[in-house]
Amino acid sequence: MRREVLKTPLAYQRHMALNAICPYFTMFPLEYPLKVLKKHRPHNPVVMDPFCGRGTTLFAARQLGLKSWGIDTSPVAVAIAKAKLAQATFEDILDLASTFVHGIEPIDVPDSSFFKKAFHRKTLKEICSIREGLLSVQRDTNESVLLRAAMLGCLHGPQSKDTSNSGYFSNQMPRTFSSKPEYALSYWKTHSLIAKKQDVLQVLARKLERISETGETQNSFSHVRLGSSELISTLPGNARNFSVVVTSPPYYGMRTYVPDQWLRNWFLGGPPHVDYSGHPQLCHTGQNAFAQSLGKVWRNMASTQAESLEMYVRFGVIPSSPVDAIQLFSNSLEESGLRWKCVYTASASSADAGKRQADQWNAKSTPVTEYDFHVRRVD
After folding, report:
1. What range defines the domain where residue 169 resides?
2. Helix (H) or strand (E) holding 369
3. Which of 209, 227, 252 is the last residue of a domain?
4. Which of 114, 224, 265, 271 has a 20 to 30 Å separation from 279 between CA atoms?
């Protein structure tokens, strides 16, 4: 009997390690944008992702030598996505980190109960030195962009029994989202867990060694913009020639993308606590409002100066929202006020299949059902 050979997912292949520089919940599986863009590669299109998240579409475009642009409202997402278009050596990135650690005495070291239990005091001091160094950068370089993303990727995650092999700075935590302080403190107390002393530069070195070659790119990290794709002004003038959109909008009913990344947001200059007040993506006050909000994005995408526009959208809703995802997406196209041809609609199975929910606390949750849409602008 012939034995079936299981193919290793792209997320675990070494030459794709840059795409995993920072684990992130609702991660967009790399296979999807690569499959789509390979079809269009012979025409050398410019690619756009109006909800770029951690930049997987941009990374896929880079792998195929295509120019791409990305937009997102989350500072954390933008910081990670920029790294997907950056290019620097392992040594130069680590040298910059070392300069900050040895040259900056941090003045803003959080002293809340959470931070005292989340990190060893020496480790936290080194983290804050790099944080303040990056916050002082007036003009980003490839090295600062990649260092920032690597720090975000190492900031929190599961503890290793052997500190010489640790990949994270923190006490036991999820790697994909920031647990809330009260829950984390209770968990650590219940399980008698303490933060181990980690050498930040050594942890970074282990991370960067895995992505030692960033590879060639036609793009600059400046091709990723912080802002709302609902606003036409967010689209830069020199990015109005894209002809292929590959994206995955926020799940309907999911309003906490930034609060769920609050610790990484703190590293980027945000408050040292959970803040639910800002950075919304689309309007979630009702299905009609959401469709109208998303329709504005599709209308802005259709404003491209390219002769044609192909849009590939992976779309889903959270399990707690009793909503017909296919109908909601269709309504959003109608709300754009433009004509679209639906080329195909297909089930993308569930979010679990794409490793889009990774909960290190072993919590049980119902996977999100997603659909793939291919629509074409009709002139």
Report:
1. 90-209
2. strand 369-377
3. 209
4. 114
